[in-house]
Design a protein that fits this description.
Layout (H helix, E strand, L loop, with lengths): L1 E11 L18 E10 L2 E7 L5 H4 L4 E3 L4 E4 L1 E3 L11 H8 L4 H6 L4 H10 L2 H17 L2 E7 L6 H17 L3 E9 L10 H18 L5 E6 L6 H13 L3 E6 L7 H8 L3 E4 L5 H8 L4 E4 L1 H6 L7 H6 L3 E4 L13 H12 L3 H8 L1 H5 L17 E5 L7 H4 L6 E6 L2 E2 L3
Parallel strand pairs: 1-4, 1-5, 6-7, 7-8, 8-9, 9-10, 10-11, 11-12, 12-13
Antiparallel strand pairs: 1-2, 2-3, 5-14, 14-15, 15-16
Helix pairs in contact: 5-6, 6-7, 7-8, 8-9, 13-14
The protein binds N-(iminomethyl)-L-glutamic acid and fe (iii) ion.
């Protein structure tokens, strides 16, 4: 099946190569005005200017009229936890009343609360809830997503989550990457026996995950009161030994040392980064590890935003993601993520869009397949309502601007 998308007022992120964008490179977002794009069997097979539309194409049977709207690559959301049971708005109210995320966690709330509920839920119920979340975010422009385990914290619970993610991968039009986050927090019974829980991860979880190919990455919540840098390294190395590359939760609440561990291990990404000192910034900037910033999590937890300007000016590779999860970011709205990055973190619109598309794709090792308008890449595209310029996207925050989506061979009503 071949589809022509015509009358695109602005075609953003047009590239012939897919570099990892660092520092100043983030501020260049190549675009073509008044364009068409050709999609063949779900793959971008050509694009050009309407004035130069090859005569044969104009009479194609299947055409989509972009009607003066913009087209850009679908968001690549490289950090989420969308397999979870229920919601945690009672904690949200506790936080309004003054409790901190760490205090809620210490009381057995937070991640442990979600783990308790997840272990009681059936695989089908978890699948159905996560499926609804995928539908929700894909309507808002997300075309690729990373999903973590980490609300099981038992052998059965973690494997159940990863099997749900595997099933989502098999059935969804979105591109999905799976991350094993067994080291999200210590279950209560292992609070005083860290070695015991790490042994459970190494000896009972990882071998099954490797045998059933249930994950692409390994993640650890490296944070005071959670996993130390030494424990993080040990767990990541155990994952790496069975082919899982690290993507680490680092420097969210404290200068946890997680960034340096990630850089040392050659992690694909270190994520969060609300608390960064000069040493952590320089370590990241001198590496190919991607710093994934999660502004909606900082917003929701009412903490300082990630130092995006400082990181970009130091020459780091930056991605943006939603962190969609029930405790610190109950939203997977990447449009809002992009707005918040611009408004609160002073990222330029071009930087934010690059970080949420091509660099987001790289943060899932999908940079060769997604994240830009490039011949041969999967046609994961956002069609917007007409916008005057790129800056209008983050500027008109909260306004629905996605008119429809093309995700490979699938498309929404257009
Ligand atoms: O990325 N920081 C750790 N994990 C999640 C929150 C998980 C939860 O509160 O359920 C995060 O913010
Ligand atoms: Fe997270």
């Amino acid at each position: 099946m071949t589809t022509l998308i015509r009358n695109i007022r602005q075609l953003y992120q047009v590239r012939t190569t897919s570099p990892l964008l660092r520092g100043k490179e983030l501020s260049e977002l190549p675009m073509m005005e008044n364009a068409w794009v050709l999609v063949e069997d779900g793959i971008i097979s050509g694009y050009g200017r309407m004035e130069e539309l090859p005569p044969g194409l104009g009479s194609m049977k299947d055409q989509v009229d972009a009607a003066g709207g913009a087209v850009l690559p679908a968001w690549c959301d490289s950090h989420t936890h969308i397999v979870f049971e229920g919601s945690r708005e009672a904690e949200f109210v506790d936080k309004i009343r003054g409790l901190s995320y760490a205090e809620i966690a210490a009381r057995g709330g937070g991640i442990l609360q979600s783990a308790k509920r997840l272990n009681e839920a059936s695989e089908d119920s978890l699948f159905n809830q996560a499926w609804a979340r995928l539908e929700e975010v894909s309507k808002m422009g997300t075309g690729a997503i990373e999903i973590k385990s980490g609300y099981g914290l038992t052998v059965e619970g973690e494997l159940k989550m990863l099997r749900v993610i595997k099933k989502l991968k098999e059935r969804s039009n979105l591109e999905i990457r799976a991350t094993f986050l067994g080291a999200h927090t210590y279950p209560l019974e292992y609070r005083e026996d860290h070695a015991g829980y790490i042994r459970l991860i190494r000896e009972e979880m990882l071998p099954v995950i490797a045998a059933e190919k249930l994950a692409d990455y390994i993640d650890v919540f490296c944070e005071d009161g959670f996993f130390s840098p030494e424990e993080t390294e040990e767990i990541c190395r155990a994952g790496m030994a069975v082919g899982l590359k690290p993507k680490i939760h680092a420097n969210q609440m404290n200068m946890s040392g997680g960034t340096q561990v990630g850089v040392k291990l050659g992690a694909v990404s270190v994520d969060h980064l609300e608390n960064m000192d000069e040493e952590a910034i320089q370590a990241l900037a001198g590496s190919n590890t991607i710093g994934t910033l999660l502004p909606t999590a900082a917003f929701f937890l009412r903490v300082a935003y990630q130092p995006a300007r400082h990181l970009i000016d130091a020459g780091a590779v930056i991605a943006l993601a939603s962190d969609y999860n029930p405790g610190s970011s109950p939203s997977g709205n990447m449009n809002l993520v992009v707005s918040m990055a611009c408004i609160q973190m002073r990222m330029l619109p071009e930087e934010a869009v690059n970080a949420a598309t091509l660099n987001g794709a790289h943060a899932m090792e999908l940079g060769d397949k997604l994240g830009s308008i490039t011949v041969g890449k999967k046609a994961n595209l956002i069609l917007t309502h007409p916008i005057p310029s790129l800056a209008y996207l983050p500027y008109a925050f909260g306004r629905p601007q996605v008119r429809g989506m093309i995700l490979g061979s699938y498309r929404t009503e257009l």
